[in-house]
Amino acid sequence: MALWSGRFAEETDALVRRFTESISYDRRLYPFDIQGSIAHARMLGRQGIIPAADVEAIVAGLTAIKADIDAGTFEFREDLEDIHMNIEAQLTARIGTAGARLHTGRSRNDQVATDERLYLRHEADQMRAHLASLQRVLVGLADAHAAVIMPGFTHLQHAQPVLFAHHLLAYVEMFARDRERLADCRKRINRLPLGAGAIAGCTLPLDREGVARELGFDAVLRNSMDAVGDRDCLVEFLSALAICAMHLSRLAEDVIIWFSQEFAFIELGDAFTTGSSLMPQKKNPDVAELARGKTGRVYGHLMALLTTMKGLPLTYNRDMQEDKEGLFDAIDTVSLTLLTMAAMLKTLRPRAQRMREAASDPSLMATDLAEWLVKQGVPFRDAHHQVGHFVGFCQQRGIALNQASLDDMRQFLPLATDECLALFDCARSIAGRNLTGGTAPAQVATQIAFWKEQLKGVNAE
């Protein structure tokens, strides 16, 4: 029997039951639903709203139900629609009238909002742990290959020499911001809706603040209509996941490019690559490609929820049942991607000689030449113009910048000296960028040490 069946003379049509059920996917909320129900029951007892003996029976019954669900022996029923009604119906079947008292002073509206916040709080902590693990892998790679030099890219064109470690640490910074976003989002998640009822609160003397303390919430939501009609915290969580997925996709793209035969900058372990059903020679970076591809579905779930919520009047509307499947899939997708990418990156090995050769093209040090002129007092725009003419001259002659003579250089850079001819060295170029945030070995070593300390014991899995 449905919780609301007293008002209706006919049973719900089977198609409607199938159309409206959510137990097929919201069953994952069960530990949080039971956690919230136990806290609610204890509050009802403390406030004298239900007998203490009933509270004991409810808590014991819910604990037993959780054990059954944990063990996989609990039978979920589609006709009971959702996780809340499945648990409550079974509780009443087991302990009788006491179970029917559990829903006193609450609605499924504030109940599901509470379940979702408890769930999101847990997932935010888990996701931050996965991110910290990925950061540790990247820092470890940077530390192990701290001397490897590669070309940095803008517009996918060779730009300037950088340390491979510096490139990896850029992603450590991105994932640090993802962790910060999740931590900040968690603050807004951690406010209790329970006690808001269906829309307007309750005439019973509920102790919302006491329930909040027991469940570890920082505060209660101040407006009952906002408490049940809002899904901002889900949207914000999905937004944080979408940005994280973007970062994963960019890292994956770098891996894919580096792994191509044209670049041949890295090797990946066989266990994290795949072959071709037709071409025996193929070794494909499918893990990275899927990480890149799965980003689209995470974006889709964010847009779907924004679209669902944008036209809803206050307060609760059944449309909001559609908030869960996309959220669950996005969480599963990003979590698995983080774990798999971290495992794949542990097998990554740079091809240091190949990378250094690519970074040794003298044209990558053209900016060093312009900056040398600046040190001689030449305005940067003039220096840039002079070096640009010199580069054009070398290209027309079909020679590298370091193959031109000092006399050739002085046609365009009147102040050039023998020192200019020594600038076309990638290691020297990198070493010269010794300022905070730069790619110089000393700066990168400082950053590696910083991140090792920052990640020490943080969200360890």
Fold topology:
Blueprint: H1 14-20, H2 23-26, H3 30-46, H4 52-71, H5 83-95, H6 97-100, H7 108-144, E1 149-154, E2 157-163, H8 164-189, E3 191-192, H9 208-215, E4 219-220, H10 224-229, H11 232-259, E5 266-267, H12 286-309, H13 324-345, E6 349-350, H14 352-359, H15 366-375, H16 380-397, H17 406-410, H18 418-421, H19 426-431, H20 441-455
Descriptive keywords:
Fumarase C, Chain B, domain 1; 3 domains; 20 helices; about 450 residues; mainly alpha
How does this structure look, described?
By secondary structure, this protein is mostly helical. The chain has three domains: 5-104, Fumarase C, Chain B, domain 1; 109-357, Fumarase C, Chain A, domain 2; 361-424, Fumarase/aspartase (C-terminal domain) (Ribonucleotide Reductase Protein R1, domain 1, Orthogonal Bundle). The chain contains 20 helices and six strands. A two-stranded antiparallel sheet has the order 1-2. A two-stranded parallel sheet has the order 3-4. A two-stranded antiparallel ribbon has the order 5-6. It is elongated, with a radius of gyration of 30 Å. The mean pLDDT is 96.
Order of helices and strands: HHHHHHHEEHEHEHHEHHEHHHHHHH
Helix content: 55-70%
Strand order of the largest sheet: 1-2
What's the structural domain tally?
3
Main β-sheet description: 2 strands, antiparallel
CATH superfamily of the largest domain: Fumarase/aspartase (Central domain)
Shape: elongated
Average of per-residue pLDDT values? 96
